[in-house]
Amino acid sequence: MNTHQVHTKWLGEMAFEATNPGGIIKMDSDAEFGGNNNGLRPKSMMLASLAGCTGIDIASLLKKMKVEIDTFTIDVEGDLTEEHPKFYHTVRVNYNFFGTDLDEAKLQKVVSLSVDKYCGVMEMFRQFAKVEVKINYLKS
Question: Entry's Pfam families (predicted)?
Answer without folding.
Answer: OsmC
